[in-house]
Amino acid sequence: MGAIRLEKVKKTFGTLDVIPGVDLDINDGEFVVFVGPSGCGKSTLLRLIAGLEDVTDGKILINGTDVANEAPAKRGLSMVFQSYALYPHMTVYNNIAFGLKMAGESKEVIEEKVQSAAKILNLTDYLERRPSALSGGQRQRVAIGRAIVRNPAAFLFDEPLSNLDAALRVNMRLEITGLHQELKTTMIYVTHDQVEAMTMADKIVVLQAGRVEQVGKPMDLYNSPANKFVAGFIGSPKMNFLGGELAQKHSCHEIGIRPEHVAVSTENGEIPATVKIAEHLGAETYLHVEADGYGPMTVRATGEVPLGEHDKIFLTPEQDRIHRFDAHGLALGNS
Amino acid sequence: MSTRASTLTGRIMSAPSIIVLFLWMAVPLGMTIYFSFLRYNLLSPGMEEWIGTLNYEFFLTDPAFFASLANTLLLVGSVLVITVVGGILLGLMLDQPIFGRGILRLLVIAPFFIMPTVNALVWKNLLMDPVSGMFAWIASLFGLPAIDWFTNAPLTSIIIMVSWQWLPFAVLILLTALQSLDRDQKEAAQMDGAGPISIFFYITLPHLSRAITVVVLIETIFLLTVFAEIFVTTGGGPGLATTNIAFLVYTQALLQFDVGGASAGGIVAVILANIVAIFLIRLIGKNLDN
Amino acid sequence: MEKKQTPLGYVSFSVFAWIVGLLIFFPIFWMVLTSFKSELEAVSIPPSFISFDWTLENYAEVQERSNYFKFAMNSVILAVGSTLVGLVFAVTCAWAMAFNPTKRTKDALLWMLSTKMMPPVGVLVPIYLMFRDWGLLDTRFGLIMVLFLMNLPIMVWMLYTYFKEIPTDILEAARMDGATLPKEIIFVLLPMAVPGIASTMLLNVILAWNEAFWTLNLTTSDAAPLTAFIASYSSPEGLFWAKLSAASTLAVAPILVIGWFSQKQLVRGLTFGAVK
Amino acid sequence: MKRVMGAALCALLAGGIAHANAETKLTIATVNNGDMIRMQKLTDDFTSKNPDISLEWVTLEENTLRQRVTTDIATKGGQYDVMTIGTYEVPIWAEKGWLAPLDNLGSDYDVDDLMPAIRSAVSNDGNLYAAPFYGESSMMMYRTDLFEEAGIEINGRLTWDQTLEIAKKLHKPDEGVYGICLRGKAGWGENMALISTMGNAYGARWFDEEWKPTFDGDAWKDALEMYTNILGNYGPPGATSNGFNENLSLFNSGKCGMWIDATVAASFVTNPKESKVADKVGFTEAPCAVTCTGANWLWAWNLGIPMGSQKVEAAQKFISWATSKAYLELVASKEGWANVPPGTRMSLYENPKYLEAAPFADETLLAIDSADPINSTLEPKPYVGVQFAAIPEFQGIGTTVGQQFSAALAGQMSVEQALSAAQSSTDRTMRKAGYY
């Protein structure tokens, strides 16, 4: 059981407002991802929930109890650190068992729990090794194993994959998602990588400068970003923002259109443009173009398109995929 | 970056050390300050009387004070230069492949473990003695007259002994620092066409700067209060040639038993030490923070 | 600098290095050698290196005059005792400074170091009077306290720099794992800091062993360590170089051997965070 | 972990305290010279006669001993039950009431047998405050073989000018023989002991009747010029670091033509086990100049008991044992008559066995008898002591002046500079101490 609720949670360091005041509901069993550019306060928010930092003001409710003034250990949460934070002087077994020992569990219980965690994480053969003798992915699994055995109300992940190489990162992503499906425990996951957020989350919390910009399911954020920041942050490549005539036509300050929602034609279309760079990936082609009167844009075309530098093309945004923003960057309803 | 609870525990846990050190410093220091305003000779107890700043006047106008101040600075400065330069050279030497390097290293660091008193006794009697000492014999092999170390070069003799004691310390730290130097950096510099000397000055020396800072800091702390070597060999002489501040205070306290004068001297020494400390702190603050 | 050396270069450089090393070590070697000579041979010119009558007479005489083992035992107790007491204080203090620093931490550290720059003789009389009043003169306890306080700043400093290198994450992980503060320190911090702690302890044993001002002035016999032992040999009457050498050898031998055996540990912590 | 350390601490504490037990333990501070060390080795004789008393020896080098003992007695630290102190300390300390009078040394102690000069030096108002362990004056020891070779004969007491001439003749550094060995190491008990007697011989004194130092007079200038000339030009190299022990080593290894120093040296230089020149040593009185008054010093190492000691009775027993006639015989029986501590008892100099074993006995007696702490200068003086002034400030003054004179010897300053530095520093100290 792990429903977490933040009420007006505030954090200041000296005179600096790191978190000006956050309200958030996390349901039991949900996989929530905090995403945002670095320095946006997402890690701080996680550490506030963990109890590694004090809140300056506000409440943190875990299953209805305010734990804002409780020691980390009393909150019943587990955390996986970016650096893994394994105990270098202990074997894998002891690393995983440490929390149980601290909780005063009996030897038998420890043995059983460690073994079952090891099995889930494919670590059974490595239990007697030291962390220094493991690969990055194995270390990550040990860190997760350490979190699992304590049956926490929720798992907290602090950018757990950023120290892994690209291929391993995809693997671990799947493993963690699989783990969530198996354990059905609440997970709070911090990352700056929107791909991880999109692929893993039940619910994404987009943060900027300590403020929650938007909360929602991945596809909701993709389809209806609440503002220009979310629109630009979610989705890859980034959304194109166009002002000028086109915006006026849609009676707003600026419009946004995702690269995948623009039709490309060599003959005719709404916006004439010149190709600068074409990235051919086989299944799709990214065209970085200079649109006449609008500046640089990125466009995604399916499959292989025979275009190259200096080619003249025409772009046509899909009308029902156009996002409209006012002068403050807030999204306006579809026109 | 921590919680109120842990900040509080932090305060509580650092408190014992700070409090005991504070008491250890403040209580005797307070008494010393009080004594420094008294005419207080240990040999005339019960005759103490308040004499205001007379002790300070006498200490500060004592020609011995300036001589000893100069000697202190000269001693600290020379030993620092010798040990840092020697430490770098020996460090570079021991960083090369050498037959039996491990054992050689043991030989080089051995002087650091020697009691200062023993150090002084051995150098004074077995080595520097102008009649039967080793150096006199070596000089005679070359047909040279023996150097009368403690008469003709007293401060130099002290500097040699103290440097011998502290050189290994510098070698230990600088050698470790040298070994941690990234080989890539040197190779990149070689690719850029740098010779061994430019590599030393542009790569190795900057890399050593933090280690050198530490050597300077720690050695200064100990060198400011060098005492045993002087006490055993020259007794501060001839004249005032080897009297440093610590020894001058000692002569007041334990030869003249002038507690008042020694206290004033002690306070002056504390003030001087703090000036040096502030200077060092600037240096260290820059170098150790990053 | 890392150029491949020719075999000739290797040999000649080794020879050169060994000459330098032996020169540095020579005073110690000569002291030990002299301790096995007779007094007349000790002062003879030219000095004899091997071809003299090796004798243990000096050691016997030294032992007869003053019971070496009593002094040595005191040295061990004082050095180890002050180091252990110091460790308890220094670990907690360094933990707090390294992991829960406040604005004044840096100042506190440097202030601690600056307490060491005061010439001890300046406060001898106050300390002596206090020791007298508290009955601490010539007690091991009193000396342990003094040596502990003398070395505490260095210990805190060394441990602080060492602890600084330990990632905070790991301690936080332990905290998340439910470890209380003492358990966090004992089960996580200390085992990780073993090399640093070992070198801190070693350096302090060396410094305490060689401390010659307080140990001489605050002891008479019960608590007198080897520094007091050697103080009676600094210039006795008659020819004394051989006996002096024997006594000196006895006084420095234990710490030299310990230092040699543990120099690797010593080096690691001695860098005071200067080398990462 | 903390508990373990706590336990360890308690154990240490307990170890420190557990020593106190039924028998009386006397802690004895001694100087590390030959006679004292010999006494240490004879401890068994005392403890077998006094099984309820155990002895704990603290042997220290002279300067360290003096500091330790003075600090302790002045602060009433109570660390020592018996202290070895010099004739300089005894009158000062007795005056201050720091020493327990020795009134119970036993019926067979024979106080009247003590040499008058020595006895008066350790008494105050007719009471004995310390018992002399050995006494000494200064005299000249010379190499009879070298004198013969150079055709030198001694007729009557030498003057310093004559001594200088002899030193010139004997000085052959190429052959490893130096004309004269004298103390050069700075210290009131080292070079100043000798230089003070030279000063006395040249008619100088430490202080005039107003307690003003007199280093600006001609007498000191003559004395110091002689000293730097004779030792600087015809002495061994490194003379500025030579004290009694270093000179003894030099003389014993045959490197000195003459040596003017303590009479106790006589037994060492004539001991064939330690001396290469044992059978070639002659003895004569220390040289005079314008006067012979105060030309040789008087010194004794004595045993005293600090006031307030809880163990006065046992301590007196020990002192009585260590300074008795029986002790002399004990040493004689173990080590031979030549090695008994000299210079304290008249009976020793009437003992034919001693006179036979100690060819230097007559000269020693003569020297000690002729040294008078009261009348030791040509002109009147306000202080007691031949080679020192028995005032608390003297240690500091003597050492500072000693430093300046050794700087003159080293050639770092001229004789004039050294004297004026000595004058001003002594003047400062006396002014600060409130003498005027």
For the record, the count of structural domains of chain A works out to 2
| End-to-end CA span of chain A | 43 Å
Mean pLDDT of chain B: 83
Helix content of chain B: over 70%
How much of the residues of chain A is beta strand, in percent? 25-35%
Feature tags:
heterotetramer, C: 276 residues, mainly alpha, MetI-like fold, 14 helices, D: 436 residues, alpha/beta, D-Maltodextrin-Binding Protein, domain 2, 2 domains, 8-stranded mixed β-sheet, two-stranded antiparallel sheet, 18 helices, 43% helix
Task: Give a nutshell description of this structure.
With 290 residues, chain B is mostly helical. Chain B is 74% helix and 1% strand. The interface between B and C is large, with 114 and 96 residues.
Task: Tell me what you see in this structure.
The complex is a heterotetramer of chains A (335), B (290), C (276) and D (436). With 335 residues, chain A is α+β, with helices and mostly antiparallel strands. Chain A has 9 helices and 19 strands. In chain A, strand 14 and strand 15 form a beta hairpin. Chain C starts with 6 loop residues before the first helix and ends in a 6-residue tail after the last helix. The longest helix of chain C has 32 residues. Chain D folds into 2 domains: 171 residues, D-Maltodextrin-Binding Protein, domain 2 (3-Layer(aba) Sandwich), CATH 3.40.190; 220 residues, Periplasmic binding protein-like II (D-Maltodextrin-Binding Protein, domain 2), CATH 3.40.190. The termini of chain D are far apart. The N terminus of chain D is likely disordered. Classes of the chains: A alpha+beta (335), B mainly alpha (290), C mainly alpha (276), D alpha/beta (436). Chains in contact: A-B, A-C, B-C, B-D, C-D. At the B-C interface, helix 1, helix 3, helix 4, helix 5 and helix 6 of B face helix 1, helix 4, helix 5, helix 6 and helix 7 of C.
What secondary-structure arrangement, pairings included, does this model have?
The complex is a heterotetramer of chains A (335), B (290), C (276) and D (436).
Chain A: E1 4-13, E2 16-26, E3 31-35, H1 42-50, E4 57-62, E5 65-66, E6 77-80, H2 92-102, H3 107-120, H4 136-148, E7 154-158, H5 166-183, E8 186-191, H6 194-200, E9 203-208, E10 211-216, H7 218-223, H8 228-233, E11 240-242, H9 244-249, E12 254-257, E13 262-265, E14 271-280, E15 284-291, E16 295-302, E17 312-317, E18 323-325, E19 331-332
Parallel strand pairs in A: 3-8, 3-9, 6-7, 7-8
Antiparallel strand pairs in A: 1-2, 1-4, 4-5, 9-10, 11-12, 12-18, 13-17, 14-15, 14-17, 15-16, 18-19
Chain B: H1 4-35, E1 38-39, E2 49-50, H2 54-61, H3 63-94, H4 101-109, H5 116-127, H6 134-141, H7 149-152, H8 154-179, H9 183-191, H10 196-223, H11 228-233, H12 245-255, H13 259-288
Antiparallel strand pairs in B: 1-2
Helix pairs in contact in B: 1-13, 2-13, 3-8, 3-10, 3-12, 8-10, 9-10, 10-13, 12-13
Chain C: H1 7-34, H2 39-42, H3 57-65, H4 68-99, H5 105-114, H6 124-133, H7 140-164, H8 168-176, H9 181-192, H10 194-210, H11 214-217, H12 226-231, H13 241-261, H14 263-270
